[in-house]
Design brief:
25% strand; Alpha-Beta Plaits; Rossmann fold; 2 domains; alpha/beta
């Protein structure tokens, strides 16, 4: 059995559900299908679809074509309690790419951003792109990081509510990023994450050397941390969020992997997606009401 949950505009809702039902019949998925919906707000509805079928890709195509939801997920995992949340940071928990903002201090933002974009699209491997970008930062004062963090870095709408609500429900929260501890540690503290895994910039005499200290945190690191934490917890379901190519391994490994306003490669790989709206859409999709949310 597959379960799909969808958030979409209330306007035209009934017409879309009728089209969805017809489309399911056309692809042989209608037998035993159950479709229900309710108002989420004055202008949004949330719908649930259960079908006795296992073709995830086909169901997704039908949903996207006939509903075009703001946010959705499709799962065969049922709706068991979450025990672990693992998230990317840049463009997921915060609105920026930290290394791009830091590069602006050195007057090389365009050059660094171009490398970042190629990595996010999966055109070059993450470690190569990271080392290329960090080399370009050589000579920047370490103090510029604190200034950048204070002046330019903003948390993603809904991020703190999502993290705090999950924590209040006993979910362990882990921020794992290909970014840097200089940024990730204060961001994790602000949002309330239990653990942080990130890269560490090398600093000598108060300036960035253009190098890194220790092992690289990349997409495989994100997967390894998810699996490590899952094994330690031993039960329950795992939620993950990310937006880029190096998030794909953990998004696919999670029971519920959400691509947040993501690059196409990550969006296509995830079982859930948020195209419009903020991160609290995840709470809506998991039926966590407003009066149970924490700030």
């Amino acid at each position: 059995m597959l379960i799909a949950r969808l958030i979409a505009d209330a306007d035209g809702h009934e017409t879309r559900l009728e089209a969805l039902a017809k489309a399911l019949a056309n692809v042989g998925m209608a037998a035993g299908a159950q479709i229900g919906s309710k108002a989420l707000s004055e202008d949004k509805t949330i719908s649930q679809l259960r079908i006795d079928h296992d073709d995830h890709a086909m169901l997704r195509e039908v949903v996207e074509t006939n509903v075009n939801p703001d946010s959705a997920f499709i799962t065969a995992s049922g709706m068991e309690a979450l025990t672990l949340f693992v998230s990317d940071m840049d463009s997921t928990m915060i609105e920026q790419e930290c290394i791009d903002e830091l590069a602006d201090f050195a007057g090389i933002k365009d050059e660094v951003s171009a490398i970042t974009e190629r990595a996010m699209q999966g055109e070059i491997d993450f470690e190569t792109s990271l080392r290329q970008r960090v080399e370009l930062l050589a000579g920047i004062d370490e103090s510029a990081i604190a200034e950048c963090l204070a002046d330019r870095i903003t948390t993603m709408p809904g991020a703190r509510t999502l993290v705090q609500t999950l924590k209040a429900k006993g979910v362990r929260t882990v921020l794992v990023t290909g970014g840097f501890h200089h940024f990730a540690d204060p961001i994790a503290d602000k949002l309330g994450f239990d653990r942080v895994v990130a890269n560490r910039l090398d600093v000598k005499d108060g300036k960035l050397t253009g190098g890194l200290v220790g092992p690289i945190a990349d997409g495989q690191t994100k997967l390894a941390i998810l699996e490590e934490e899952r094994a330690e917890l031993g039960a329950g379901r795992v939620l993950a969020t990310g937006d880029g190519a190096n998030d794909i391994p953990m998004l696919q490994a999670a029971d519920y992997g959400f691509a947040y306003k993501a690059k196409k490669t990550a969006r296509d790989a995830a079982s859930g997606w948020i195209d419009r709206g903020d991160l609290t859409a995840i709470l809506d999709l998991f039926d966590i009401p407003e009066d149970e949310r924490a700030e």
